[in-house]
């Protein structure tokens, strides 16, 4: 075999990491969500500077990929504030529901990057959020395998 066809490792070469998926849905964000994006950008920039100084090419590739994601998310972010005084669930609302078994749970409807169901932050694209948006106190919505009644709505 010819040496021309042998790929020798190059210590300066790092594999190109695939970009993170940006999705196709609108990038709706709450004020807090926008702050989180800005914090991720600042953290990424600081990490990239440290990786450059250390000569860590793998960390630089990872951070550059993540920064491309956060820059794109920041550029497409659409800040949505809930309408004060509204009596229906909307993006940014905190909704308290009572399930069939009597459990009460509170969820805030947020953007994709801010979502954290364990903390009660659900993406506006989730089935639960889609079932709640546009409903008022006393309305019933699908919540998992059962139904739940909306008992409170806050737009704080």
Description of the molecule:
The chain has a five-stranded mixed beta sheet with strand order 5-4-3-7-6. With 156 residues, the protein is an alpha/beta fold. The mean pLDDT is 89. It starts with 27 loop residues before the first strand and ends with a strand. It has helices at residues 31-54, 57-76, 127-132, and strands spanning 28-29, 78-79, 94-99, 104-110, 121-123, 140-143, 146-154. A hairpin with a 2-residue loop joins strand 6 (140-143) and strand 7. The protein has three helices and seven strands; from the N terminus they run βααββββαββ. It is elongated, with a radius of gyration of 22 Å. The chain folds into two domains: 11-79, no CATH class; 94-154, Transcription elongation factor, GreA/GreB, C-terminal domain (Chitinase A, domain 3, Roll). Helix 1 (31-54) packs antiparallel against helix 2. GO terms for molecular function: DNA binding; RNA polymerase binding; translation elongation factor activity. This is Transcription elongation factor GreB. Keywords: Elongation factor, Protein biosynthesis. InterPro entries: GreA/GreB_C_sf, TF_GreA/GreB_CS, Tscrpt_elong_fac_GreA/B_C, Tscrpt_elong_fac_GreA/B_fam.
